[in-house]
Amino acid sequence: HSNKPAAGRARRARAPALDFIEPALATLDRNAPSGKEWLHEVKFDGYRMQAHIAGTDIRLLTRTGLDWTARFGGEIPAALASLKCSDAILDGEIVVLADSGVSSFALLQGDLSAGRSGRMVYYVFDLLRLDGEDLRDEPLLERKERLRELLGSLVDDAPVRFSDHFVEPGSLILKHACRMGLEGVVSKRADAPYRSGRTGSWLKSKC
Q1: Is 91 exposed, middle or buried (CB count within 10 Å of its CB: 0-12, 13-18, 19+)?
Q2: pLDDT in tens, 10-59
Q3: 188 counts as catalytic
Q4: Which of 43, 144, 188, 204 is catalytic?
């Protein structure tokens, strides 16, 4: 029994680096769409980051593929390294939450400049690869379900968190988001595959 974890670690450590995937981008729209085919997420004000887990190697890459892992301290990589998988690619946003619970880009920039990482949270909203399987052709809802399972082992206040979604009409979600002082909402087609660039299956509406 005692040699099993060590064997697992050795197997993970040898995984090769994964290729960067150009992120999917949201198209600006004045109104959030309504209809059962759309789901809606909070629009965060932070840095969009693609997390690569390859064995014990954790990398955090910017929208253009730059490696910024070292800039975000040790807490987020440690939480990612604890996930039960041999490899994965996650898509999300690193933020710092103000006392109001709303993400603040100014606070994030301040913490980055000061070299502080204790308040940073990585909200993950998509899963592009898991254990060697490319998930980009799967419907968004299915990818999010697998993501929720993957992140299920983390505690509630972990620095890596699942970005939940809402299925109520977009106009209602946008109204609530604006009332709460959020930046807006991102609406995504629930059945859409993951495609790089702007394809129209992701829309953003700002307050």
Answers
A1: buried
A2: 444 556 778 999 999 999 999 999 999 999 999 999 999 999 999 889 99
A3: no
A4: 43
